[in-house]
Amino acid sequence: MSVIITKNIYKTYPGVVPVHAVNGVSIDITEGEFTAIVGPSGSGKTTLLNIIGGLDKPTSGEVIVNNQDISQLSNNELIDFRLHNIGFVFQAYNLIPVLTAKENVEFVMLLQKRAKEERDNRVAELLDAVGLGDRMNNRPSQMSGGQQQRVAVARALAPKPKFVLADEPTANLDSTSTSNLLDIMAELNRKENITFVFSTHDQRVIDRARRVITLEDGKIVSDVTRE
Amino acid sequence: MLYKLAWRNIWRNKRRTFITMGSVFFAVMLAILMRSLQEGSYEKMIENVVSFYTGYVQIHKEGYWDDQVLDNSFEATPVIKTATSSLPSVNEAVPRLESFALAASDSTSEPCLVVGADPEKENVLTGLQNKLVKGDYFKTGSAGAMIAEGLSEKLQLGVGDTLVLIGSGYHGVSAAGKYPITGLVRFGSPDLNDRLVYLPLEKAQIFYGAEGRLTSYALNLSNPDDYKAVVKDLKKGLDEGQYEIMDWTEMMPELVQMIESDRGGGIIMMGVLYVIIAFGMFGTVLMMIAERQYEFGVMTAVGMKKRKLATMVGLETIFISAMGIITGAIASLPFVLYFYYNPIYLGDSMAEAYAQFGMEAVFPTSLDPAIFINQALTVLVFAVLVSIYPAIKIMQIDPVKAMHT
Ligand SMILES: Nc1ncnc2c1ncn2[C@@H]1O[C@H](COP(=O)(O)OP(=O)(O)O)[C@@H](O)[C@H]1O
Ligand SMILES: [Mg+2]
Questions:
Q1: Which ligand is nearest to the CA of A42?
Q2: pTM of the entire structure?
């Protein structure tokens, strides 16, 4: 079953020389995928992920997430849509500085008005899964970059979203933290059957993906699935 | 959750929070102290003038106030008594017969104001007995007069001496009488202190040839704030063509005007103070939202409504202001209380100026809770106003731009 379908999307930034950040991309991502969007810096990875995630709108083309055409939604509806369907992991500074690890993971579930018991159980489960069960009450400033990214992954997964979008989640991490984070992501993908789409230009990360979509100048130049 | 976030956020930059809080603190403290001194001085002035002499409401014969002569006196009929005693907020109608006369001793004479009054009722209304400095308080049935201390010095007459009064009475009859001085009273106002002579009401009526007549009833109210309602009710109950019913604001328009213009000045000063503080707060909030763009971007990206975000930032401003307000109000208390128990004396030259209005130049602060509440509300309103622009900014946040660093 498809979770994300894009039909010939374009994103053009006007200027003296207009930039086609995304230049006619059609993709179909099905449930349970563990997919990397790869390409050099400036190839359009972030722009594409933002459009899929409802953070940005394409200049033209259709984005269908969960059988819903999200290009028709208002900004306010998009916020709600993101809240209930998508988990996000950004490159860095994902966490709310004044909240502890536990509270950060809980944050999205609170916005969804989930019951306290459900939140507590899920938070404990996920922080254990990302290996930070003993860091529940630490604030982001008391954790390393790798630990913060693991909390961000836990937060993204907490409400059991349809899929998780991660834009270069390992860009600021050393190789140990990188492989550690990838292990956790792969494990959760397998265990919870949550679809992961992440961008990277790091070969070690690319090697862990089951499907690799390569962008160049906003266009798909290859799309390889390996088993 | 919004409260928790807002509360923790304000402690991220402790120094900035303390500076902002401190400015609110000082503004509130200053404003409360200033307003409390001002309102206290007004309360004292009104109290001085009103419960000192005029009372909050008076009843006269129509036309008396503009032409205060004995011929404008009225007969003390039961009609008025009935009308006033039917009103629950009127404790007592205090009768007076007042007119000018000449007070004489062996060596000299001085103009004076003879007040014929009911000793007990007068005391309840104006606390006259507290002003007694020598001798005995005057009594119904006795022929003894009580005179003001200043007048006694001018006449060089003391307790036990005889006072001679000469004047013209009701319908121009000539009035003359001899009264033993039984007591001396002291007034803060030199004007009154040099002039007043108290006689028991019936003695004054006999002196002026105005038996059974009065120039005024001063009403003693259980709650002075009710004076407007009392006037309204009395106007309904009494024949308006025959009597005039006046409240203290009509009898003392200069006082009202003076208070209003002084209060206006105070409020403008306070306004300026608060606008300065508000600009400081505004700058702080702007800086704060500029620094936290990325974070706000993340929060909206993961699904936090902008309305909530704006509320959170508004709460931060309100928390900081509220802490400034509360600490400022608490800190102002000792000063307000100090000046309440140790009233400010304005100095001799001011004392003279105030004395012209019949006032003592001693001013305790006002403890009226409205002063504290008004300051708190004013600052809160400013805090909310200051939050409007940031709220608009937050409503316009685009997570992609906000996180594009
Ligand atoms: N807001 C913007 N305005 C103009 N050009 C932009 C903007 N955002 C991205 N771009 C351009 O779009 C292209 C793709 O950028 P991006 O999606 O960030 O690539 P990547 O994430 O692969 O590095 C780049 O050439 C970039 O300069
Ligand atoms: Mg990028």
A1: 1
A2: 0.76
Q: Which residues are CB-contacts of B7 (< 8 A; sequence separation ≥ 6)? A: B319
The Cα–Cα gap between A48 and A162 comes to 18
B351 lies in the same domain as B398: yes
Chain A residues touching B316 at Cβ < 8 A = none
Give the DSSP letter of residue B364. P
Alpha-carbon distance of B166 to B146, in angstroms, equals 16
CB B141 within 8 A of CB B179: no
Fold assignment, A2-225? Rossmann fold (3.40.50)
Q: What is the pLDDT of residues A108-159, one digit of tens each?
A: 999 999 999 999 999 999 998 889 999 999 999 999 999 999 999 999 999 9
CA gap A160, B53 in Å, rounded:
80
Interface test with A, best of B302, B395, B400, B404 (most A CBs within 10 A): B302
Q: Encoding tokens for residue B208? A: 């002026």
Spans of all domains in chain A: 2-225
B2 touching chain A per CB within 8 A: no
Query: Are A82 and A163 spatial neighbours (Cβ–Cβ below 8 Å)?
Result: no
The interface pTM score, or ipTM, of the predicted complex is: 0.93
Same structural domain for residues B23 and B80? no
Q: Cα(B402)–Cα(B405) distance, rounded to whole angstroms? A: 7
The enclosing H or E element of A20 equals strand A19-30
Total domains present in chain B: 2
Report strand pairing: A60-65 vs A2-13.
antiparallel
